[in-house]
Structures
1.
Amino acid sequence: MELIHPIFKWLHVVAGVMWIGLLYFFNFINTAFAPTMDGDTKKKVVPELMPRTLYWFRWGAAWTWATGVILLLVVYYHGGLTFDDPESSGYGIEFFSMVGITFLGVFAYDALYKSPIASNVRLATIVSFVLLTIVIIVMKEWAGFSYRAFNMHLGALFGTNMAFNVWFRIWPAQQKIITSIKNGEAPDGELLALAGLRSKHNTYMSVPLIWTMHNQHHVTVPTALGLPAEFSWLVPMVMVILGWHIVWQLYKKSGTIKGF
């Protein structure tokens, strides 16, 4: 276990840099660059560039998610860092319920953004945030998760949603989009919207996710802020809001950068 932890953390970070770096390339660079190409240029560039980029993108996602799950098993479940008080909390129905929500909540996320609510961005965002807040409070108060543990499970929930988007929404849509462009046809507008929306979601989830990944370095933040222990769940939720705002600002900035 002493070897697994550092090796898989290293692999996790390398894969994560690959994945998130390409995610930011797509959203902050390519989305502004692609419309500047004419039809003939797109027909030449897209079928050569995008399959290569998406190869590293999707496998970076897969390796980041898989190594993250291994670290969760080793550091928290095997390492005993899951609970604030292991004597009063344990691996019972509360724990397994929260793990289930962490890894199966992606289906609720997917359903939400296929529902009519998704057409109202503000409402969908509020609903998403409220649901996340409820999950974190329940992890802490009902399941007895420690500060580090509910941070990490929030990150695992985001990471699972993001990896799902890459493999089951973005990549299948992009395969059809690239094929259409290669054949000189107009891509399906619904596929373009789906791939773009889920990629944008991943970008918004990525910044708070990175906060949770280094949560062992900020365990004293609630105390430093003078928060009572029962309100420590506020810290990751504030970081979600801050992370979403940072990404919004980055999108605004990306639209102002021009080529020569």
2.
Amino acid sequence: MALAMTSMTFRSRPRAGGRRGRAPRGYTLLELLLVLAILVAVAALVVPTLFSSLESQKLRKSGDQLRAAFGRARVAAMKSGRIQLFRFEPGTGRYVTEAWYADDERQLDEMTLAQSSDNQPTLATAGQGRERELPEGVLFADAELQPDARAARLEEETGALSAGSLSASPPIVFYPDGTTSDARVVLMNNKPRYVVVELRGLTGISMVSDLLTREELPQ
């Protein structure tokens, strides 16, 4: 009896060098192609959404950048006691802020569209101001400026506020007392989506809209 139990116990143990579990089966070519097709389909759905989000973020950033440029021009006018002019080139992202000088000081030359060394058009002034640019893919689409009696008077006295090229916008004027022109500037990307930067002349405060479609633009 003891011998039988010992024999049974011996047989229940796994034998050294015995059969092992089967090796895992590899993927077939068909399975790999199916997984690849699913990944391509998911990417086709996700990538456009991702790029759209990035473009929208750049447009919002551009609106904030323009608002900051207005703020800097207003502060510069108040600190220096000298009028500041803001101009942009429609259809591009280029803009410039420059100080205005009367005839008896140093009247600024007319703003022109000059050719830079790489033959690309650039906003040019008589050594005044620094040209800046919005993020890539964002353009100045439109602008609405309210008539300004003080700007009209300066224009009549010196003609220095006139743009030298039809491609350059009329100036948005920032005065030493903190007031500005009333203006509404529209920026757009290639979607197209828009943001509107509105400048209140009496307070000099600017505001940026949410993203808008063409139908939602203020009339």
3.
Amino acid sequence: MRVLAIDPALRKTGFAVIERRGDDDFHVRTYGIIRNPPKLLQSGCLVNIRGGLDEVIRRHEPEACAVESVIYVQSYKTAITMGAARGAAIIAAATHGLPIYEYAPKRVKQAVVGRGAASKEQVAFMIRALLKLDETPSPDAADALAVGMAHFYAGAGSDRPTSPPPGQV
């Protein structure tokens, strides 16, 4: 099973494609960040997020998408902006017919570190160790990799997707 994992944000959206070949045999096909410059309007950022993820999906052909769900934020403006970035990511995946699974940030941290209040540095360190990477990924890419691992640890889609592929309502 191959999953596209996304940690959405307006300026730095982390993404990863991870393939599970056996019980504990994982292969990272790609990971990185879709960066948007500070002066780019929100609409341009959303177009870049969708376009960047479209390219990743075309190149790596994942079978499912795992997305970090909305976190609690004190600012409604931040929540709306994060929701827009999530929307662009979800639309990219849904356009390609991928079932979409959402994971709460605490659940993701619990899956890879063992505690839901882990720091970004702890997540990145554990991701490097779990996936036998040569270098520690940046925090946003590490978070995306962690979302993918949480998906596999949750049974690789044994739960019903939060957003079914088009035509499967």
